[in-house]
Design goal:
Chain lengths: 243, 349
C-alpha cells in the first residue's frame, strides 16, 4: 500500500529480517545509501514545511496540491531507485516494487491526471500521512546506516504506522472514489473496440478493481508491520540497557 | 564413517577383486553380500522418524527389512499418522537435505542399523492428472461459451449469434483442438514422475488458464472483432505454423513417453528419432516447449489479438524457466549430455 512502512526498500545496512543478522555492504554502496536516505529525508521535510506554510498563509487546502506538486513528484518518483537498491540490500524486489508502484500510481495516474480531485480533503489526508511516514522511515534508515539509532526514531517507525497506515489507505481510497465520475465522463486512458489489436481497456473499471484489491492487500501488510513491531520493540525492552 | 557410500544399483561397479565380505557396508554387516552366495542371516533395521523442524520423535519402526524401500517406510509411517498419507511425506537424511526417493532402498542409504529420517509435511496433495484435466477442461469450455455468445457475455442482441468472420471459426477450431489434444495426452500419453503436487497449485493454475482463456475468447469472439490486417495470407501462414507446431509438440510427447517404460521412473537422455519433428532434440533440451510457444505464436498471428500475444509471452517466460531447470538437471545427471543443446531456443536460450 502506498502509505505502508514496510521495510521493503531496505535502505538500512542493518536488515530487519527474522534473524536480525547484520549485513555489511561495500563502502561505496553504504555511502550512496546514506546520501540517498539523507536526501529523501530532507526532501520530504521540505514538502512537509511547504504544505504547512501554504495552509498557515492561506488558511485553506484549496490549491495546496498545485503548489507542492513539483516537490512531491520529484521525490516520490526518485524513490523508484529503491527497487534497484533491493539488489544491494537483499530485500524483496516484489514488495518494494508494489509499494513504490502504488505511490507512483497515486501521484501520476490519479492526482496529476485527474485535476478535478486535487482539492479534495482526502488528498491532503494522504499527503500528510505520506510526509510523516517518509520522514520517519528515511531518517530511520539514515541513522541505521550510521549505526546511531536514537530510540525515539525506532519507536516512531514502529508505532506511527498503527494510525498512519489506515489513515493513508482511507485518503487514497477516498481520492480514487472521488475521481471515478470524471474518469467515466471523459473516458480517459481507455481503449475501446473495435481496434486492430482486438483489446480494450476501461480505466473506470480498472480503478474499481484497484480499490477492491486493497481488501486482501492492506490487512496482510498491516499485520506484517504489527509482527515486526512486536519482534523489534518487544525484544528491545528485554535486552537493551539505557544509554 | 569409513563405509562406502553408494546408491542403489551401483553395487556391481565395485571391482571384482574386492571381496564383499571384507568390507563393512553401512547398515551393519551385510550378511547377504551381493554377487556371492552366503548365509542369509537377515539383519533388521530400526527406523526413527523425526520432525525436521522440531526434531520431535514422531515414529519408531523396528524390524524393518533391509530391502525395504522409502515407499514402504512411508506406508508404515502413515499407519501411525494417518493424516500424513505417503504423497505428502518428505523424508530426508538431513533436516534440510533433499527428499529421498520412493525407490531408494534402506540398506543402500548412508545410515547405521538405526536409520534416522527427518520428516517434512508437504501439505495436502492432489494428483497431477487431476490438475491437468481440470486446468485444460476449463479453457476448452470457456472458449466455447464465448464462441457461441452465450447470454450475459455480450449485449443481448448478440446472444447466440455467430461471427461473420471465417477466421473466428477457424480460431475456435484451433483452440479447441489444442485443449482436446492436451486432455488426451494427459490421459494416454504422458508418464508422470511425480504422482502429486500441492493442492494450492490447482487454484493457481486454474486461475491462470481459465482467466486467460476467458480474456482471449472475449475479444476473438466479440461482435466488434477486427480480422487480421493481411487477411487470408496472414491466416493461412498462421494456421501452417500452428499445425506444424502442434504436430511437433505431439511428436515430442510421444518420444518422451517411449523413453520410459510403463511404471518405471528411469531417466534417459532423449534423442532424435525417425520422426523429423524430433530432430529438434539436436538443438534443444525441451523441444516440446519450443513447439508449444510456436503454436501460440501461430495462434497470435491468426487472431491478431493482443491478449493472445500476452498469453504467449507469459507462457514463454514460464516455459523458459522450466526448460532451464530441466536442462541443468540433464547436465548434472548425464556426463555425456550433448553440448550443442540449449534449453528452449536453439543457440539462444
Amino acid at each position: 500500500m502506498a502509505s505502508s512502512e514496510e521495510d521493503g526498500s531496505g535502505n538500512g545496512s542493518v536488515e530487519e529480517k527474522e534473524n536480525g543478522k547484520k549485513r555489511s555492504l561495500g563502502a561505496l554502496a553504504t555511502a550512496w545509501l546514506i546520501f540517498y536516505n539523507i536526501a529523501m529525508t530532507a526532501g520530504w521535510l521540505v514538502l512537509g514545511i511547504a504544505m504547512a506554510r501554504f495552509y498557515i498563509q492561506r488558511g485553506t487546502h484549496r490549491g495546496l496540491f498545485r503548489s507542492v506538486q513539483k516537490i512531491l513528484k520529484f521525490f516520490q518518483t526518485f524513490a523508484l531507485l529503491e527497487v534497484v537498491h533491493c539488489a544491494v540490500v537483499h530485500t524483496s524486489v516484489l514488495v518494494t516494487g508494489v509499494q513504490v508502484s502504488s505511490r507512483i500510481f497515486m501521484v501520476w495516474f490519479i492526482a496529476h491526471s485527474i485535476k478535478q480531485i486535487q482539492n479534495e480533503e482526502s488528498v491532503i489526508l494522504f499527503l500528510v500521512v505520506w510526509t510523516v511516514t517518509e520522514i520517519t522511515r528515511y531518517s530511520f534508515y539514515t541513522f541505521n546506516l550510521l549505526n546511531h539509532l536514537p530510540y525515539f526514531i525506532k519507536w516512531a517507525r514502529y508505532n506511527f504506522f498503527i494510525i498512519l497506515y489506515p489513515a493513508g489507505v482511507a485518503g487514497e481510497l477516498l481520492t480514487i472514489y472521488a475521481a471515478l465520475p470524471y474518469v467515466k465522463k471523459t473516458g480517459m486512458y481507455s481503449l475501446r473496440l473495435p481496434n486492430k489489436y482486438n483489446v480494450s481497456f476501461d480505466y473506470y473499471y480498472f480503478l474499481i478493481i484497484v480499490m477492491f484489491s486493497y481488501i486482501p492487500l492492506f490487512p496482510q501488510l498491516y499485520l506484517h508491520m504489527l509482527r515486526q513491531r512486536r519482534k523489534v520493540l518487544h525484544g528491545e525492552v528485554i535486552v537493551e540497557k539505557d544509554d | 564413517p569409513g563405509a562406502i557410500r553408494f546408491r542403489a544399483g551401483e553395487a556391481s561397479a565395485l571391482p571384482a577383486s574386492v571381496s564383499p565380505r571384507r568390507r563393512w557396508w553401512h547398515g551393519g554387516d551385510s550378511a547377504a553380500p551381493r554377487g556371492g552366495g552366503a548365509k542369509k542371516a537377515v539383519l533388521f533395521f530400526e527406523v526413527e522418524i523425526l520432525d525436521a523442524k522440531t526434531r520431535e520423535k514422531l515414529c519408531f519402526l523396528d524390524k524393518v527389512e533391509p530391502q525395504a524401500t522409502i515407499a514402504e517406510i512411508k506406508n508404515l509411517f502413515t499407519k501411525t499418522h494417518p493424516q500424513w498419507y505417503p504423497a505428502r511425506q518428505s523424508l530426508r537424511l538431513e533436516p534440510k537435505g533433499r527428499s529421498l526417493k520412493d525407490e531408494d532402498v534402506l540398506q543402500s542409504l548412508p545410515v547405521g542399523t538405526t536409520a534416522t529420517f527427518y520428516f517434512r509435511d508437504l501439505g495436502a496433495q492432489i494428483s497431477w492428472v487431476t490438475v491437468f484435466l481440470t486446468e485444460y477442461a476449463g479453457p476448452l469450455l470457456i472458449y466455447l461459451l464465448f464462441y457461441f455468445r452465450v447470454p450475459f457475455l455480450y449485449g443481448p442482441r448478440y446472444d447466440f449469434t455467430a461471427s461473420r468472420h471465417a477466421v473466428v471459426h477457424l480460431a475456435c477450431a484451433c483452440h479447441s483442438f489444442h485443449y482436446i489434444k492436451r486432455l488426451l495426452e494427459t490421459l494416454f500419453v504422458h508418464r508422470f514422475s511425480h504422482g502429486t503436487m500441492p493442492l494450492r497449485n490447482i487454484f493457481k493454475n486454474c486461475t491462470y488458464y481459465w482467466g486467460f482463456a476467458a480474456w482471449m475468447a472475449y475479444y476473438i469472439n466479440h461482435p466488434l472483432y477486427t480480422p487480421p490486417a493481411y487477411g487470408d495470407e496472414q491466416v493461412k501462414l498462421a494456421l501452417a505454423v500452428f499445425l506444424f507446431c502442434q504436430l511437433g509438440n505431439f511428436s515430442i510427447h510421444v518420444a518422451l513417453r517411449n523413453l520410459r517404460p510403463a511404471g518405471s521412473k528411469t531417466r534417459k537422455i532423449p534423442y532424435p528419432t525417425r520422426n523429423p519433428f524430433t530432430w529438434l532434440f539436436l538443438l534443444v533440451s525441451c523441444p516440446n516447449y519450443t513447439y508449444e510457444v510456436g503454436s501460440w505464436i501461430g495462434f497470435t498471428i491468426m487472431t491478431q489479438c493482443l491478449p493472445v500475444a500476452l498469453f504467449s509471452l507469459v507462457g514463454f517466460v514460464q516455459m523458459a524457466i522450466w526448460a532451464q531447470g530441466k536442462h541443468r538437471s540433464y547436465l548434472r545427471e548425464f556426463r555425456d549430455y550433448p553440448p550443442l543443446r540449449s534449453p528452449i531456443v536453439p543457440f539462444l536460450l
